[in-house]
Amino acid sequence: MNSRKKHVAFVVGAVLAGAGVRAEDQSLPVILVKGHALAADSSAFTTNVIEQETIRERHASQLQEMYREVPGISVRGLGLGGVADSINMRGFTGGGHGGDIGMAIDGVSLNESMSHADGYADQNVIIPLEVERMTVYKGPSSVLYGNYSRAGTIAVESRKGGEYRDIDIKAGSHATRDVQAALGTQSGSVQANVAVQLFDTNGFREQSDTRRATASGRLGFDLGGGTQLALSGRAHEGKWDSASYITAARNANGDTRFDKDPNVQNDEGRKDFYTARLDFSTPLTDEMRLLAFVSGTRQSLSRSYTRPTTATRWEQRLEAYERRVRGAGASLNGAGRIGGRELNWVAGVEAYRETTGYIFKDALSNGAETALTTSGAKPYLDRDYLTRSVSAYGQAEWNLSKLLRPALGVRYDRFSGDCSPAGAEIAAGAGNPCRRMADYDHASPKIGVRSTWSPLFDTRISFSEGYQLPSAAARYGASGSALEPTRIRQADVGLTFKPAKGMLVDLSVFRIKTYNEVRDLGGGLFENFGQTRRDGAELDVRIAATSRLDLAAALTWIDTKVLQHANAAVVGMAVPNVPRHTAMVRGRYDFGAGWSADLAIQNGGGYPVTADGSASLGGFTTADLTVAWDRHTGTGRQRFFAAITNLTGRAYSTSSLVSAGIQLYAPAPPRSIQFGMNISL
Question: What pTM, to 2 d.p., does this model score?
Answer without folding.
Answer: 0.93
